[in-house]
Write a structure and sequence with these properties.
5-stranded parallel β-sheet; globular; 2 domains
Length: 295
């Protein structure tokens, strides 16, 4: 499958859309749309089908490892801005958007931060988390409108997420933010994409064609999820939301987490579980229980 991009403004037809910064009639081959090595999946025995998917999944961690040198400066740049009051935004459509919203949603319970520290936005709004929203990803103006609803500014960082690297909703929002001096990064699974061209920190995770052709919820989605896990966790550690290897600011919202926190306190202070749980419930957080008792 080939995607064509033109530098002259015109109505989009046959899947073509306007991207002014690229050369006229430039052509990009999408690896994410190529046919993979496995054919006639419907005829495969279940064991062989699962083995094929698992074999392809094993490529993902290696691809992430190869990207670490590019992820490192991005983590440091985000943390520097967040120390000054900035926020981290994820923006995507479809699977990519859902993964961004998921990662952002996990930060408050895991690290005890305000929901406005890390914000995930999906094309089509929250309804799109469960239901497809027709043409939402093709809207070239809504992305920046969605970001402006949060008053995004120069202290913030925008990470655009799109396996294809060609999603108009994300690309045009990235371009608008970059023009305003906002730090931009992207996570994509094709090389040399229009999305990467709009990113100060392009992260390209080339995991290859999917077992089910074009189904980027598979390897591409796994790669994006791993990258976002790494990104937000590392930033939160840099922000002081982890002590040693403990989630000392996690929300104690159920018995499982109270139990986990009690064990953390017991280990850190060298006291028994019962005393640790009592102390934890009295202080209200693992951090306060540990720090207020001299560890």
């Amino acid at each position: 499958m080939r995607a064509r991009y033109f530098d002259q403004s015109k109505d989009a037809t046959d899947g073509e859309f306007y991207l002014g910064h690229l050369h006229r009639h430039a052509i990009m081959e999408k690896i994410t749309e190529q046919s993979g090595p496995y054919r006639h999946l419907e005829k495969m025995p279940t064991g062989k089908l699962l083995a094929a998917i698992n074999h392809e999944d094993q490529r993902v961690a290696k691809v992430i490892e190869q990207a670490l040198d590019k992820v490192t400066p991005l983590v440091d740049a985000i943390a520097e801005r967040m120390h000054q009051g900035g926020r981290l935004f994820y923006l995507g459509a479809g699977t990519s958007g859902r993964l961004g919203v998921l990662d952002a949603s996990e930060c408050p319970p895991t690290f005890g931060v305000s929901p406005d520290w890390v914000i995930g936005i999906i094309a089509g709004g929250d309804h799109a988390l469960r239901h497809p929203v027709e043409n939402a990803e093709d809207d070239t103006t809504q992305g920046i409108k969605d970001l402006d609803a949060y008053h995004i500014d120069e202290l913030d960082t925008l990470v655009g997420i799109a396996a294809s690297g060609t999603t108009p909703y994300v690309i045009h929002a990235m371009r608008a933010c970059r023009e305003r001096g906002i730090l931009t990064a992207c996570v994509t699974c094709n090389p040399g994409t229009p999305l990467a061209a709009e990113a100060d920190h392009p992260i390209e995770l080339i995991v290859g064609p999917e077992v089910v052709t074009g189904s980027t919820r598979m390897k591409a989605g796994t790669a994006q999820k791993l990258l976002l896990n790494m990104l937000s966790t590392s930033v939160m550690i840099k922000m002081g939301r982890v002590l040693d290897n403990r989630m000392v600011d996690m929300q104690l919202s159920n018995e499982k987490l109270v139990d986990r926190g009690s064990k953390m306190v017991a280990e850190a202070l060298g006291i028994d579980y019962t005393a640790a749980k009592e102390l934890l419930l009295d202080k209200g957080s693992v951090r306060k229980a540990i720090e207020d008792n001299g560890s």
